[in-house]
Protein: Pyrimidine/purine nucleoside phosphorylase
Organism: Natranaerovirga pectinivora
Amino acid sequence: MEQFNNVTILKKANTYFDGKVTSRTIVFNSGETKTLGIMMPGEYEFGTDKKELMEILAGNMEVQLLGSEDWMTITGGQSFEVPRNSSFKLKVTELVDYCCSYLSE
């Protein structure tokens, strides 16, 4: 999907890691939420309450999911899922443009 129609966008930015990761929340008429954001190069760890689908629109990173020893390389055009009540680590090697969808089980 190239664009989202008939949505509400929250003005206040979500900022993490001293502003190195930022996003804006989009709310759909159905109540579904997504965030669109940017990550600067660095290493980060995030926790999840809901299941998440991370779509990488541009850029390059390595991802390690909770309980895994392996790191996956993810580039623009790829995505990965994170279970609810979990966490994941990121090594962002270049500016990343992303869309995070919060999924119901």
Summary: The mean pLDDT is 96. The CA atoms of residues 43 and 91 lie 5 Å apart.
